Amino acid sequence: MDPSLLDTHPSSPVQSARLSEWARTSRTGVRYVETEAVWFRVREGGAGGPAVVFFADGPNALEHHDPIFNRLSQWTRVVVVDPPGFGFSTPKPNFDFTVGAFADGYAELLTSLGGPFVLCPTCTNVYPSALIAAQRPELVSHLILMQALDWDQEKMWTGKIVDPDGDLAKPFIGQKLNYRTRTTAPATWYPNALGAQDLAETFLKQSCECFAHGGNFCLASLIQNWFGPGVDSPSFLTFVQPALAVWGMNDRSHRRSDKRSLLNIAPHARYVEREGVGHFPEIEDPLWFEALLKDFLRDGG
């Protein structure tokens, strides 16, 4: 039995997230989009201009993106996505949590939304975004890749920082641990990841509200199906769209990381460092990110 079935089986507690009335009404512009393998929860707003897409990086959900959503939707179209198994997007039984499954799900979602898009992924969402840019270039006009390493170093970072005891990587045990600890994990993560400690309470409060209404955090299934024994590393083909490789330098979880290794996935990307912010640059300093985005789009990369 595939341990990720604990998350994808119709009777799994993960599946109840899509039934949450709060998840459908917490913000304006929220709706569900069904794809072959995922029920995606998305929020859309704004109009005109380039279409900009953000992917929530668990334990964040799309609600955490309010600061940047509110700014950008004043002048362009904005889409925020809960990833499969995180927030309130629910994977179907045929979703296997591989990086390819994430890429396929996102590509189908983006196709249904109509593009092309400026993709702004953070951390794990960088990898499926890079795959889409190479395999489905018609869907992607620009990329702003944030807070990610090359694949081999991301695997090592996950083992040292995210799952240092290796419990999440253990089939079945990891999924059950996720169910027990998903509401307490953010209290440890945010002080370590955020650039300014005075933001931790706001981020934590929002996460707690999402979890209180049935939000998900299927990190064990992701770790097992991305980095587990016998899992092949993805091949990142060259993509040509203009790209930025952005790092928040006050992310304590990455204080020893080789941040420029992200350029192994996007060799042509312009490398950008931002002091004073951490793991979520676009949310922690939305004013700066908005200016960065405008300059990037105006200059054509």
Q: If you had to describe this structure to a student in words, what would you say it looks like?
A:
This protein is α/β, with parallel strands linked by helices. Helices cover 37% and strands 17% of the residues. The longest helix is centred in the middle third of the chain and has 15 residues. The mean pLDDT is 96.
Quick summary:
The protein has 301 residues and is α/β, with parallel strands linked by helices. It has a single domain, classed as Alpha/Beta hydrolase fold, catalytic domain (Rossmann fold).
For the record, the CATH architecture stands as 3-Layer(aba) Sandwich
Task: Tell me about the largest β-sheet.
Answer: 9 strands, mixed
CATH domain topology: Rossmann fold
- Tally of individual helices: 12
SSE order in H/E notation? HHEEEHEEEHEHEHHHHEHEEHH
The span between the termini is 46 Å
Low-confidence stretches: none
Instruction: Supply the helix-strand structural class.
Output: alpha/beta
Per CATH, the superfamily is Alpha/Beta hydrolase fold, catalytic domain
**Overall radius of gyration:** 18 Å
Protein name: Pimeloyl-ACP methyl ester carboxylesterase
Organism: Afipia massiliensis
Pfam family, one: Abhydrolase_6
Domain AB hydrolase-1: 66-290
